[in-house]
Amino acid sequence: MKKQKYQSGFSHLLILTIILGLALVGTLGFVFYQNFIVKKDDSSKTLTTNSNKKSDSTTTDKTVAEPKNTFKIPELGIKGIYNGAHPINYDMNNKTYSLLTKTLAFIDSSDIPASCGASGEYRPGVAKIARYAPDDDATGVSLNGGTADPGYVWPKASEAYAVDEYTNLRSHKHVGNYYYYLVGSAQACPNASDEALQESIFNDVWAYFKTIEAIK
User: Fold this and answer.
1) Interior CA angle at 116 toward 79 and 185, to 5°?
2) 8 Å CB contact between 125 and 112
3) Which domain holds residue 44?
4) CA 60 – CA 50 distance, rounded (Å)
5) Could you tell me the sign of the dihedral formed by the alpha carbons of 72, 146, 100, 153, in that order?
6) 127 phi-psi bin (left φ>0, alpha ψ -120 to 50, beta other)
7) Distance separating alpha carbons of residues 189 and 126, to the nearest angstrom
8) Distance between CA 164 and CA 178 in Å, rounded?
9) Residue 92 in contact with residue 104, Cβ under 8 Å?
């Protein structure tokens, strides 16, 4: 009988030892899970969030570059897209028209021979672009070399150029706070082939004029 009691007590002790061992293993497993698996997952989320923030800030700060074929006339406050095959430039100081308006740009091209204009103070070039404030007199017709009746009262630019218009002789466009007027050269080249070239470049400038917008 004593031997049976000893064996029964040993069995109980063995069972308790096994239970305690399992509990210890479970506790260690839970601690390992909390300290390593969960923290690793949180750090991964944090890294992803920071990466997204960096990407967003990069996108916000990125500026869009202007096309290489952008042609600006800062004195008139405009820019546009010029796709012509011939190079163009402009002059704000043509003496012949200096009394007419200070906001008049003469468009020229180095591809047009010098014979297409007198040397020195006056060269017809390709075209002219004038800028008018809303209350300025719409003297655009005279930019094409014509004369007007001395008693004629010019309408205001805001009235004369209220609606954008594009023709192969003259065009006008409302951009921002100003009205812009485009007209061809008052004088043609003496040589027929050069005159055709002058007209061809004007058509390219005309296409450019349709795209102008205010320089911000």
Assistant:
1) 45
2) yes
3) 1-62
4) 15
5) negative
6) beta
7) 10
8) 12
9) yes
The DSSP code for 97 is G
Least confident of 48-52, 59-63, 186-190, 204-208: 48-52
Tokens 């990466």 belong to 51
DSSP class of residue 37 equals I
Contact 99, 121 (CB under 8 A): no
> Which H or E run includes 181?
strand 178-184
156 and 53: one domain? no
Residues 33 and 112 in one domain: no
Do 74 and 175 lie in a common domain? yes
Query: Tell me: the pLDDT tens digits for 170-208?
Result: 899 999 999 999 988 767 788 888 889 999 999 999 999
Considering the domain architecture, whether residues 49 and 86 belong to the same structural domain is answered as no
pLDDT digits (tens, 9 = 90+) for 126-143: 888 989 999 988 875 555
Co-location of 56 and 103 in the same domain: no
- Least confidently predicted of 47-51, 101-105, 125-129, 154-158: 47-51
pLDDT of residue 9: 61
Which residue intervals of 33-72 are DSSP H helices?
Answer: 39-61
Question: By C-alpha distance, which of 154, 105, 102 is closest to 125?
Answer: 105
Co-location of 128 and 146 in the same domain? yes
